[in-house]
C-alpha cells in the first residue's frame, strides 16, 4: 500500500474516531485505532488539516489582498490577521 492510500485510510479512521468520541485524550486514539504515529501528530493533523472548516489549497486573489492589507495594518501578529472577519 502506498503512503497516500495509507494516509487517506488513517484520515478516515481519525475523523470517524473524533466524531464518535470528540477531540481530547489523544493517547487513547493510538490505543483504539492502532496508528503508529504519536499522539501529538494525531492532534496536530486533526487541528490543522482534518477540521471541516479548514480551506485546502491556495489563497484566492481576494484573500491574498486581504492578508496583505491586514499585515500592513496589524504587522506580524498572525493570530490577529487570521482571526479577522472576512
Automatic annotation (TrEMBL):
One of its GO terms (biological process) is response to auxin. Residues 11-54 form the HTH myb-type domain. Pfam families: Myb_DNA-binding. GO terms for molecular function: DNA binding. InterPro entries: Homeodomain-like_sf, Myb_dom, Myb_TF_plants, SANT/Myb. Keywords: DNA-binding, Nucleus. It is found in: Nucleus. Its main location: nucleus. GO terms for cellular component: nucleus. This is HTH myb-type domain-containing protein.
Amino acid at each position: 500500500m502506498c503512503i497516500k492510500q495509507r494516509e487517506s485510510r488513517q484520515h478516515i479512521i481519525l475523523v470517524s474516531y473524533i466524531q464518535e468520541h470528540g477531540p481530547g485524550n489523544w493517547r487513547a486514539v493510538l490505543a483504539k485505532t492502532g496508528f503508529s504515529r504519536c499522539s501529538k501528530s494525531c492532534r496536530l493533523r486533526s487541528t490543522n488539516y482534518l477540521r471541516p472548516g479548514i480551506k485546502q489549497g491556495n489563497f484566492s486573489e481576494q484573500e491574498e489582498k486581504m492578508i496583505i492589507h491586514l499585515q500592513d495594518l496589524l504587522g506580524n501578529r498572525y493570530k490577529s490577521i487570521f482571526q479577522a472577519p472576512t
